[in-house]
Amino acid sequence: MKHFILSCVLSAAAIAPTYAQQTSATKLPVYLDNTKPVEQRIDDAIARMTLQEKIRIIHAQSKFSSPGVPRLGFPDFWTDDGPHGVRPDVLWDEWEQAGQTNDSCVAFPALTCLAASWNPQMSRIYGEALGEEALYRGKDMILGPGVNIYRTPLGGRNFEYMGEDPFLASIMVVPYIQGLQSKGVSACVKHYCLNNDEEYRHQVNVIVSDRALHEIYLPAFKAAVQKGKAWGIMGAYNLYKDEHNCHNQYTLNKILKGDWKYDGVVVSDWGGAHDTDQAVKNGLDMEFGSWTNGLTMGASNAYDNYFLALPYLRGIQEGKYTEKELNEKVRRVLRLFYRTTMNPNRPHGFLCSEQHYEVAKQVAEEGIVLLQNNRNVLPINLQKAKRVLVVGENAVKMMTVGGGSSSLKVQKEISPLAGLKARLQKQGIEVDYARGYVGDVSGNYNGVTTGQNLKDDRSETELIAEAVKKAKNADYVVMFGGLNKSDYQDCEGHDRKQYELPYAQNKLIEALAKANKNFAYVNISGNSVAMPWKAQVPAIVQGWFIGSESGEALASILTGDKNPSGKLPFTWVNSLKEVGAHALNTYPGTWRKEGGAKTEGNIIDEEYKEGIYVGYRWTDKEHLKPAFAFGHGLSYTQFAISNLRADKQQMNADGSITFTVDVKNVGKRAGAETVQLYIHDVKASVDRPEKELKGFQKIFLNPGESKQVSITIQKDALSFYDEASANWKAEPGTFEAWVGNAADNLKLKKSFELK
């Protein structure tokens, strides 16, 4: 008989007193006494646990759960995927969904969209809403957020992350964690670290300079630990220094637990552990996954054979290991329990509430980016338009199903066509639809089905001809194209095979641009794409994967009900030649043996030869003009940023300096602008990027309204990682603050000195 993973909302506060009443009528055990310090309670619990109980709580017992200590009143611990929505429950030891009727969720925008909001307040409400959904579903840990760096636009999982810039990701991840954990649900920040592409993720050994590691790839994780106080960190699949990152001496013991003083748990990615000895000694605390240690699907008691299960127990019993490392792991796990399942102040959860849908819509609206708007084609003129044609498979295709571990079962998902049609028909505007292209017509992932029948046997020529014919008779044409969440697109497990749009979309876009001058292209993806037709298309919008409220949010932007304010969290290049990883031919790496991935145990070495020059740092260095710069995003109004000044001309090493500008809405619509501050080191002893983002602030202004925006920086904003001393260093001398609203639009500059 198959066991189902059931969503159970158990109150630890209820469990603890029950046990106390049974064990003592007069005195509560220390580990159950909420008045005692947590570490004292942990000491007491460890002293009461058997060796077998200690081993049990550091590895999984099902696909997404680990056991508690029933004898002592610690309940089972439940994790779930869900960096942008709580994944449906699955069968006990299978990926197939359990078929429950109460595990639908709200799909929040994927994290590229959240990052594109450039608004930390959105991160906070996002985390809170997700935490409430998880809590209602009986989940104690959400496996997210992801903060891996956007190194190549081919990265299959980029849509789950927060872009290319370590500073932006560092600022945006912290309130997400704080919001989630305020509900008593642990974050599990992933994938630590250097998991910057998906192809060969289990085999790739990353070779990277210490400087690039600390300046580019670690800052967001460091912020998550030190500022966000994350309770969980997930190790990555890949290797670094020839050790898998789920049990890596350097990244886990030295950096994470040593340098950063991390007090939470290190969780393996599912199947990310490979060796008992390394798992014991190199920082792994909780092992999760499937069919580890060579076991096959359906093996009896598979979880008992995990690297941190019976092999570890036998190692202790045989004298190979002491209990020192085990007790440290147990301490961290118990600390996690007290923060979650044993927290008597844990609030109640809510599922699919109106408030959560509103959060999803608000984040989406703030993250949608208006890339191009020649002749002010957008917003759609609701007074003049009589017929609007919607084109494209992505106008109707559900995007919440698929993509790997981010696949969701939603209560609702409003399609772009449905959202736009509902809004325009209120104005009496006729809305027509043409398929335009056929992509992936499947609609099933791990037993979750979309219920859509997208099959269309017409030829490419027929589809384009129909769309063009209809376009000629429309006042506006809006095409929803881009990628989807199928394999080799925006999906876990593989990277994209090409930068170009799939399914002959380029031909369709070019034909529509010729057929109608009021043409807007909306790109649905988590990645940038090649746009050879960019000059021919007047209006271009980046629509992301934005979840349940996709149609509502996109409609509000396209019709002008909301003014777009999103800014790109990555550089939108014209071609892969403008990306360091590809220009230097370092992606996907070099196989150590002949046969490549087909050779069992073969490792592929991927050297990050571009070093610190990722994204805009690379295009600046190479004097390249991308299609759209990092931080770029237009509005339906106009803003003037002026009068840059500083509160001092010299900054002490232990001090700070504040830059202030005046921002005015000089247009006719209310809107938001994001002031961006970059730092330029005029003369340095080492090679440094031309500029680096070190501050930003989003501000909302009515027409004609002006406000001052102030951004304060300290020495860390001027520092680089010095490999010789293995420490951060800021050299005295002249620096410049560059201020504007995009990486390629920084017209205000102010010099200052670091003493």
Number of helices: 19
For this structure, the CATH topology of the largest domain is Rossmann fold
User: What CATH architecture of the largest domain do you see?
Assistant: 3-Layer(aba) Sandwich
Instruction: Name the beta content range.
Output: 15-25%
The structural domain count equals 4
Q: Give the structural class.
A: alpha/beta
Separation, N- and C-terminal Cα atoms: 72 Å
Strand order of the largest sheet: 1-2-3-4-6-9
Assign a percent range to the helix content: 25-40%
Average residue pLDDT: 94
Give the overall silhouette: globular
What do we call the CATH homologous superfamily of the largest domain?
A: Glycoside hydrolase family 3 C-terminal domain
Q: Main sheet, how many strands, which sense, barrel?
A: 6 strands, mixed
User: How many beta strands in the DSSP annotation?
Assistant: 29
Rg on CA atoms, Å: 26 Å
Unreliable residue stretches? 1-24
CATH class of the largest domain: Alpha Beta
